[in-house]
Protein 1
Amino acid sequence: MKLALEEARRAMEAGEIPIGCVLVHRMQLLSRSHNQTQQLNDVTAHAEIISISSASQFLQSKYLENCTLYVTLEPCPMCAGALRWARPARLVYAAEDPKMGYLRYGSGMLHPSTRVAFGLMREESAALLREFFQRKRELKSLKR
Amino acid sequence: MKLALEEARRAMEAGEIPIGCVLVHRMQLLSRSHNQTQQLNDVTAHAEIISISSASQFLQSKYLENCTLYVTLEPCPMCAGALRWARPARLVYAAEDPKMGYLRYGSGMLHPSTRVAFGLMREESAALLREFFQRKRELKSLKR
């Protein structure tokens, strides 16, 4: 999760909402990525989607069994839907996202074989997101 | 939708589940794509995700306002989640997918500004899917 937070900080430096993730396969780091929706002008360029695609290329497998995805924020429904198809063994997220997170639609969005944990480095992730939106509001009020 | 069905047939020829889509912006065709999850070894390579990414590149915009997505099957939750972020004006799908479609989670998965229609060329799309799974079962029984 420390690496995922590093990725989130990279997103922040690039002016993106600071969310990062890493995908690990049996103690081996397969991919690390951060949100790039602004830079790539693409709503699908969430950290999780980038890491899932990239890890699948590496493993030459659509299925990410025996993999763990660590992400700094509860995935959105799009990413949870992708995780359902990819079936990683574990999903670990740092901070909850009651507004945009997949849990609004229930835990059944994920594949039944994916175990879920959360709360790891929650405060660090939430602080980074708060800082990002605070800066954004300040910039906005300067422009007025 | 005729073009989307052509795309679905291309998927079929490539051994993919036959689903196709096109994205149209003010009468102009922006992208056409079909399911490529097997060829690309990537669960995110659904027709809709490919077309959304590609159309966003063309428009240089994350948002697909004034766009209509025509797809031969009701989108899955991953694709509905992507559509929520991309906010097209309209989604038109041919056949319903009660098992894997997004409506299991309610129509609120899409953006409130996206209008939805379905049933256009439903029979043609459903017949193609039936043919694909029938062939697959036959191949399987031959292998036994």
Protein 2
Amino acid sequence: MIEYYDISGCYILRPWAMEIWELLKEFFDAEIKKLKLKPYYFPLFVTENVLQKEKDHIEGFAPEVAWVTKSGKSELEAPIAIRPTSETVMYPYFSKWIRSHRDLPLRCNQWCNVVRWEFSNPTPFIRSREFLWQEGHTAFATKEEADKEVLQILELYRRIYEEFLAVPVSKGRKSEMEKFAGGLYTTSVEAFIPNTGRGIQGATSHCLGQNFAKMFDITFENEKGAREMVWQNSWAYTTRSIGVMVMTHGDDKGLVLPPRVAPIQVIVIPVPYKDSDTTAIKGACESTVYTLNESGFRADLDTRENYSPGWKYSHWEMKGVPLRIEIGPRDLANQQVRVVRRDNGAKVDIPVANLVEEVKVLLDEIQANLLKTAKEKRDACIEVIHTWDEFTTALNNKRLILAPWCDEEEVEKDVKARTKGDLGAAKTLCTPFDQPELPEGTLCFASGKPAKKWSFWGRSY
Amino acid sequence: MIEYYDISGCYILRPWAMEIWELLKEFFDAEIKKLKLKPYYFPLFVTENVLQKEKDHIEGFAPEVAWVTKSGKSELEAPIAIRPTSETVMYPYFSKWIRSHRDLPLRCNQWCNVVRWEFSNPTPFIRSREFLWQEGHTAFATKEEADKEVLQILELYRRIYEEFLAVPVSKGRKSEMEKFAGGLYTTSVEAFIPNTGRGIQGATSHCLGQNFAKMFDITFENEKGAREMVWQNSWAYTTRSIGVMVMTHGDDKGLVLPPRVAPIQVIVIPVPYKDSDTTAIKGACESTVYTLNESGFRADLDTRENYSPGWKYSHWEMKGVPLRIEIGPRDLANQQVRVVRRDNGAKVDIPVANLVEEVKVLLDEIQANLLKTAKEKRDACIEVIHTWDEFTTALNNKRLILAPWCDEEEVEKDVKARTKGDLGAAKTLCTPFDQPELPEGTLCFASGKPAKKWSFWGRSY
């Protein structure tokens, strides 16, 4: 899927990754166009002056900003930043474009690259210095409209993870410490990787409130002729989503791809024996691929003659193709094909006459099974705790911790300080919307003060 | 379509431009996938060391390269370049990925942004410091395969210009002076803007020969077990294509968009008179838009109540929408709609029953008419000349000059030097594949030596 590049933290996305990215993009772009989002492309560059306008925002991003200072052999008059995100690139123009309530809502989306020159461990997909994403930026007349959109988009992110990538996620709200720099509140979908015991932020949908509107003077004349500030959102998901999927489903044999995002859903492999009619086998393989492609599946044929069938099985298992079809002399004689599932290794013979319908059923089953299995594994990691001792034990056991919390920033800072170590500190992942009952008198696991909510805690990527 | 940005030479692409870009991309991407091109994404950044490997190449691009030297407050150990094009980004990995003839052909394409920090006059779409493009990079075992692909891609570029943007172009080959830095030969599609009398390069398809293969050590083992160097191509078209279209078709009233790329092909405007049944009119408008959209057209409705129909006519004319449909009380009574063409202002009443078929015919006619008109205007500018005097006169008259040429680099340099001036020097645009007869004894217009070919000359963008 990727190739390491000679600049640390940069990776080459190869077709197997890009084709997944294109499938996700096709779904998401169509959905947001239904919501009247319009495509834009704003520049890669932003001046220092504009970048620094929103103080909390720049504090969050400043250490990671890459600066262009030279072109050819000339020094630039002033350094120019490469966008780490585009709030400051876009909002001076929002201020210009929005005059009246009739200009609202303004709903922009762009697909682009951004650069965050991070110094912590770079990891392909998960933490890279350049990544691809979509970023939506919207402005509304009222907070109600903004609030509503935050959740509409969050639901699309949930669908990307659960319906396409088969990765279970929790929708929730970020703590004050973990929210977007400069925003009002942040919602996210959070995944969890059982093997490493770490949470991972899947995508975020922020309500920016009126903070940026104030700094960038984005106001409109309302229906009564008075000037008001707009309410804004921004939201994004990135190529990281592919990495979360890889970590969730991969096994000893390599990748396991959910059918809905697999660039090849069915790989067909001829299995000729000595003296068998190779031409007839090849013909049956070609006709199988043709039939499947005509029915809307992504099927391909591996006819390479310099590799054995066994080598090909391993190769396509490693690449995670959901279904393998083998066709040998016996299959030919019996008018059937042998189908092997990548997710559980199950083998089944299908009559050629039922090919399309049975493949459809199998792919749907694999898609559902991957999500179900991942959810069971994730759920088995959730540990409800009440005390600091239970918390540290659960953390050591790499659990996804659900704990009653007083919701105070100082307490989260304190938990971070007390859990610092080689593996990284614990922090809040999110406060899930789906809240268990919180009996009166429940105390915060960390501060002993009255708890206000259940929050997920753990180490994270 | 665009908004000026506070960094010179950078522009914001607004939805009206991005939607055109998406339509072009949809066509082109599907076509190259038929040719087995695979999607990749290579990093934005390239190290100085790698960028400088191919000497001619870096000489061509060095003055325009933007350099990142800082991240946060730290100086980088070595400056890192932003890609002006991706040959040097990709080819070290081609060297790694290509081992055997079985790895060929390798065919990569990416859609991305590139940066060329030019200092000549920035112009929206035409000359900007950051632009969007696709870049295809391919490697073959033989020159024949590479040559063939160069022309396949050039034909797709011709189709983008002539079939989508309705801009007539000439296919041809660039002179040695004008070819791609580091390549073997360059083909291009060239357009011409009659108003300014300048040629403009529409897109280029380069055969790189084995120059880069040598520098980046891209070799393969052939079927006989011997090592050979690959043959490479690279080819690209950019958001400039939208600018060429704007300059070709625009008139006093604003843009004129060819139907195949118009984000809105038909705008429907209610024309209520005093006392007319506004509800019925609005209903008829909605049903018209619905019917057209259901039939696959891109139609929209302008129901804004704070603008008059006349204001809306001008607005959508300025935006270049190919067809306007007006529906007033008389249309309602007669079960018809009034249709107005943007390209020639012609008005026609269409029975509601024939809406879909007549709109289809009209859009096809507009598409064909725009290309035909542009071709007539372009052809009227072509002047065949034989002498230096005729050349300078034609140049002063802003003509597209077709001249017999000896094909010597020194002579092109000399023509450039002799025509230097405020308007810029003349140069070769291309040697068209479609060559008129060149009678024996024809002399070069500039050097007086025997002419080898007919070439287009002129000032250019």
